Structure formats: C-alpha cells, structure tokens
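Researcher: First entry.
Model:
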Amino acid sequence: MAERVENSDPKGESLLDKIAEKIHGSDDSSSSSDSDSEKKPASQSSVKAKIYRLFGRDKPVHKVFGGGKPADIFLWRNKKISAAVLGGATAAWVLFELLDYHLLTLVCHILILALAVLFLWSSVTTFIHKRPPHIPEVHLPEDPFLQVASALRIEINHALSLLREIASGRDLKKFLMVVAGLWVLSIVGSLCNFLTLFYILFVLLLTIPVLYEKYDDKIDAFAEKAMTQIKKQYAVFDAKVLSKIPRGPLKDKKRA
C-alpha cells in the first residue's frame, strides 16, 4: 500500500505542475498581448507623426484656409453657396470673354435699368396715391477698406523684401525658382488673357482643395516620392553646376 501511495504522488505532482504551467502560460500570453497592445498605439502614433504632409502643414485643410466662411466656400461645406459662387464666376467669364461684353458697359446698363425701374415706380405711385418705394441710403464702411489696404501693404512689402534678397545674389536656389515661375507665368499669359487666367485660378481654387481634403493621404504619399526625386536631381545639379558658380559673398571676401 505504501508503495502505491508513493507511486501515485509523482503523478499528482505532475498534474499540478501541468496546471500551474498552463496558468502561468496564460498569464504570460495575456501580459505579452497587453504589452503588444501598448506598443501598437505607440508605434502607430510614431508612424502618424512621421507622415509627410504637403507644404509641411500640421493643421487640417479647413484651418489652413482660415476656418471661416471663405474656407467653407472653398471646401464646399455649404454646397449651395459654393455652387452659386462658381456659377456667378462662370457667368461673368462667359459674358466678358465669350460674348465680348465689357465691364463698364455692364455696369452702365445695370444702373440704367435700376434707375428706370425706380423712377417709373415712384412716378406711378403718385398717380395711384400710394406710398413711393423706400430707397435705402447706402454708406460704405471705412474699416473693411482699411483692413484690405493694410493686408495689401504687408504682402507688397514682403514681396519687395523677397525680391531684394534674391537680387543680392545670396540665394541661387530662390533666384532660379523665381525665374522659372515667372517664365512659366509668361508662357501662360501669352496663351490666354488675364480674365481667363483669373477664372482658371478661381476654378482650381474651388476644386483642388476639396479634392485634396478628400484624398490627402494618397496625394501626400505621391508628393513625398516626388519631393525625394526632386531633391536627388537638385543635389546632382547643385554638385555639377551650381557649386561651380561664384556667389556674391565670395566676391566680397576676395576683394577684402
């Protein structure tokens, strides 16, 4: 009997050991899964932090455009207003460009029509003994014009300082970029007049931002690949051509 009990004890201990191993294994797996789950958000956040954004933006597209009513129009938050603005711009382009209607002629015709209607309405009311139409007094406020003039002054001063910096010969990269941009703009200006160019830019402003906001991940990924290729090509061009051109500060040093 004692031998049987002694033989049965190791089996009992082995069963207990297996159960304990299973419990510890489940605890280890749960702890490892918890650690993995903790690591995943951290890795995802680090990946999100490294995502390339076009023009280096760190805000939503709506806030980039100011976050007000103009941003709502450009991003089609209110489809009726955006469609009305686009329709008005299209009608103006058709009138002035396709039908050869001039702005001064249009303004004069609108004023003639409005004055004729109001004059006839006021004259008829005197004969039928009714109250004449109430014509409101219109006064343009001063503050919006001052704000627009101040904003234009700031932008013009910034553009003049940028042109002065480029003309000084210190930054060859900016010089080449500005020259290339002006050359492309001159080609576009030779193909179409100012009104058509303004209308094309306005239509692009009403279509590109909303498309970018909808497909920003794909566009940013494509832009990142394009920027890496452009940087590689610019590095080669800089090493072979730009680095061999003498700069302005170098001339000053040689003279000194």
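Researcher: Second entry.
Model:
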Amino acid sequence: MADNNHSYFQHPYSVLTGILGLEQKYYWMAFPLGAIYVIALFGNDVIISTIKSESSLHIPMYYVLYMLTLADMGLVLCTFPSMLGIFWFNFKSIAFDICLVQMYFIHTFSATESGMLVAMAFDWVVAIWNPLRYGTILTNGVVWRTGAVILTRAVCVVFPVPFLIKRLPFYCSNILSHSFCLHQDVMRLACASTWVNSLYGLIAVIFTKGSDSLSILLSYVFILRTVMAIASGEGRLKALNTCVSHICAVLIFYVPVIGVSVIHRFGKHLSPLTHALMANAYLLVPPVLNPIVYTVKTKEIRKKIIQIFVQTKITAEG
C-alpha cells in the first residue's frame, strides 16, 4: 500500500542547490555573478543592436551572428531569475512545472546555438571555397530559412523531454544539484527506471550536438584543404585568420558542453563544487565570451561600444 500511495505523490516544488559548501558566501558571490550577467546582457544587446542598425552588416555572415546572439541571450534570460533568487535572496524553491519549462528552454536554446555554429561553418566554407559565387549561394533569404530550420529542429527535438520527465514519479527527493534545471539533473531524482529518458536524451544529443560537431569538423577539414591549395603563405594566413572568431566560438561552446556531459556520466565521485562550476560554465561562458570575441574581430561593433561609452560619459557629466 505504501508503494501505491507513493505512486500518486509528486513533490510540487524542486529545490535548487546553488553551490554546496559555499552557502555562507552567497551574498558576496552575488556581486561578481551579477556582473557576469550584466556583461552578457550588455555585450549581446550591443551585437544585436549594431547588426540591426548598421546597413553594412546586413549580410549573411552577420545575420547568422545575429541569430547566434539571440540564442545566447535566451540562455542568459532562462537562468537569470533562478540564479538571482538563490544568490541574492536565498530563494531556492521552484515549482516542478516551472522547472520543466526552464529545462526545456535551456536545452532548446543550447541546441539552437549549436546549429548556428554549423551555419557559420558553412558560411566560411562557401566564402573560402568559392568567394565569387558567395552572394548567389548564400542569400539573406537562404540564411533566414536556415535559421528557421535550425530553430524548428531544436524545438521539435527537445519538445518530448519534459513530457518524458513528467510521467515519472518523484517522491524520493526533490533536491537538484545546480542553480537551474537540466535534464540529466532532474532525471536522476526519479524513483523509477529512466532508461527511456536516457535513451531519448542520447538520441537528441547525437541528432543535435553530435551531428553538428561532426559537420563543423568536416567543414574545417574542407577549409584547411582549400587553404593549403593557396599558393602564397600570406594568402593562406589571411584566409585562416578570417575563421579565428568562429573557431573561438566553437571552442567556447563545445568545451563546457563536453565537460558537463562527461562529469554527469562519469564524474559521480567528484565534489559537488566541480559539478556546479561546470554546469555554470556550460550556460554562462558562451554568452559572456562570444560578444567579447566578436567585438575584438568586428570594427563596427567596437565603434558601437565606444559610442555608447562616450554617450554615457556625456550624460553623466551633464
């Protein structure tokens, strides 16, 4: 009878942990964490507004960057409320259904960002392989349709995940490991077999990030072969230099993704602090570092930032 009673009971709330062992320092950690969020929001907002306002940037390469930045902004806005609640107000409870919604959007935006990195890689392939036909192969319409396909793929692939979680009983524990809801973390609290969830999660990862990382790798193999065929060393260096920002964006995204996946599957013996830091890096590193990389590499974005600071200084002095 106890088991039957359990089957009808679900915890209405989940408890977000934050960072175990550092609870007494949350108030002080809130300031650097808030600064990180401000940098991410400001940096991504500058890129979005610059691409929208500068007609010279209304080309396929920057439209893909625009969509990548929107995905980064989505990740920031998904996690900001729960992180702020924990570190500033020590508010750790989150309704289970809200947790599933947050989980859905986190994984959807993450899959979207992965797809946008593939679109960027294809953009560089076309630009280096056949620059004379670049404008006819990659039109603005093609780029926006590609973005719509990438978003649709992410939405559809992640859509069953909350429903697969919802069918499971959660009467054993409701304490999560992180400051936000991730699929692997929520799934481990279930009091029943999760092989269906694990299998679908693996298929979803292979279909999105797995196929995307392979596509990016093959793109760069093709790019390197094309670049090595250029006669002059200066020409090869110039061609490779154009890809630096994209290579940085790929590393910034995939290194934390691989790290958090490996730790969830094989790092059960590691400290909770390691798990928390890797999960935070997975969601915060790309939105913070991508704007910095593209600001360094894009003159128009640098000019926009200087313009904002000058206007702020004039307003403050006035």
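Model: Note on the second entry: The longest helix spans residues 96-129.
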